[in-house]
Design goal:
The protein contains 6 helices and 8 strands. The chain has about 140 residues and is an alpha+beta fold. The chain has one domain: Chemotaxis protein chec (3-Layer(aba) Sandwich). A 6-stranded antiparallel β-sheet has the order 1-7-8-4-3-5. Strand 7 and strand 8 form a beta hairpin. It is globular and about 45 Å long.
Length: about 140
């Protein structure tokens, strides 16, 4: 289970350290790909394979399915953390998420997102500034 928010610095090779509490779940490998919200999504390998099977089952005749498949797979990289728990972010993913020297990793139960810290702060602040809007949004989800 992935929970929490962690800020890390990228080293000169574009690597960041995976939070210690996440490492056991990611030791056998992980996939990092583009997220919908200009962030990156970090999946444990087993979770990504489940998602990949669902996406592969979508009809190729659907423009939406083809678009999602392109977004999810074309920029994806599979990596294994090194002995210090570091993984590299390729330039194309860093550019997509506007990541330079710092990242924020947030746990979302079965996967993580990787954000530019300023973008993440802005997103959180907009949410915090509109508690009624959040309540309505959560109610519409049945929560």
């Amino acid at each position: 289970m992935f929970l929490g928010e962690f800020e890390h610095t990228l080293d000169e090779k574009g690597r960041f350290t995976i939070p210690a509490k996440f490492r056991a779940k990611l030791a056998s490998g992980l996939v990092i790909t583009r997220g919908i919200d200009r962030c990156l999504v970090l999946h444990p390998m087993d979770h990504f394979m489940e998602l990949a099977e669902k996406v592969s089952d979508l009809p190729v005749t659907s423009a939406q399915a083809r678009g999602f498949r392109r977004l999810e797979f074309s920029g994806a990289v599979d990596v294994e953390p090194d002995k210090q728990g570091r993984v590299g972010l390729p330039n194309h993913l860093r550019e997509y998420a506007n990541i330079d020297k710092q990242v924020v990793i947030i746990g979302l139960f079965d996967h993580c997102e990787i954000w530019n810290p300023e973008t993440w702060q802005e997103l959180k602040q907009r949410s915090y500034d509109d508690p009624e809007g959040r309540a309505e949004q959560f109610a519409s989800l049945g929560i």
